[in-house]
Amino acid sequence: MKYRLSDLRILGSSGFILEIKDSRLVFDTKPLSGSIQFISHAHLDHAYRLSLKNVVMSEETASILRAIGRKGDWTILKYGGKLRIGEGLEISMRSSGHVLGSAQYVIDSDGLRIVYTGDLNIYDTIIHEGARPIESDILIIESTYGIPYYRFPNREKIYADIVKWILKTISSDEIPAFKVYSIGKSQEIIRIVNTYLDVPVIVSNPVARISEKYIEHKVSLDYIPINKVEGIERLKQGECVYVSSFKEELPTSRKVRWAVATGWALRYRYPNYDISFPLSGHSDYDGLVRYILESQPKQVYTIYGYAKEFSKSLRSRGINAKPIFEADQTTLY
Ligand SMILES: [Zn+2]
User: Fold this and answer.
1) In the structure, what pLDDT confidence band is assigned to residue 1 with cuts at 50, 70 and 90?
2) What separation in Å is there between the alpha carbon of 20 and the centre of ligand 1?
3) Residue 6: is its pLDDT beyond 50?
4) Which of 105, 194, 210, 264 is the most exposed place for a label (fewest CB within 10 A)?
5) How far is the CA of 64 from the centre of ligand 1 (A)?
6) pTM (two decimals)
7) Ligand 1 centre from 275 Cα, in Å?
């Protein structure tokens, strides 16, 4: 099959533009004249150039963005919902398993299917189901951890290590504290503590603001915001865990031990922290490869992170892949 796309290219190092059937669609990057902007999730590296109009996102993403002060007259799409644009162009949304409301976008046109994964996690977590692969002709897949070095331990093992460290720290009458993203990772830590331990979780105000949105969307979380008297009292005495997106000075004379939880912990040391856990909202290398093998695309474009290395590795497995910044041809396969 030959299908002419007038353009498919990357802008800068993040997001891409698709010009198809007289429509200009931009994904996770700045709007262009006459474009429709699609936002995959609320992390600011994907949503920072948010337009006021002609923007599509999930309800959950919109509620998180509003909670952090962003405004706009946005078009809401549900998982499984469809949006028709012009003649014969249909866009639908599925979960990408990354954070609350995170989306994969499916673009169907004249029998051609293009899928953009956004940030992708195929593994089930204590909060979200993992993303399911979607069959496609052309797949644009993130490659944040797209080198074989990044093979994450089993998630239950990481949870167990986190719980053990919390218990050990508490038994020394110290406070275990986590510096993690306010969207996604914070809620996963809160839920781990809620599930496996009978210890209150105190959270910073930004984490509380986002966690409220998770609760509104039926993710059960139990925590005490630090701006409540009860939160301050707990930090001064009694067992507790603290969760914040910043490593900060806490209003207590007790020793605070800080942990960081990120996939990068597999490779990098965090000397300013007491411990690090390789807990990630992304798929590791094996997860990315598994997604591609199950979705069977004819052409793969890699985007973000190790885009070049991941494409090369896929080509060595006989998969037609290139980084999206090399996707400058107008005819695809
Ligand atoms: Zn993200």
Assistant:
1) very low
2) 26
3) no
4) 264
5) 13
6) 0.93
7) 23
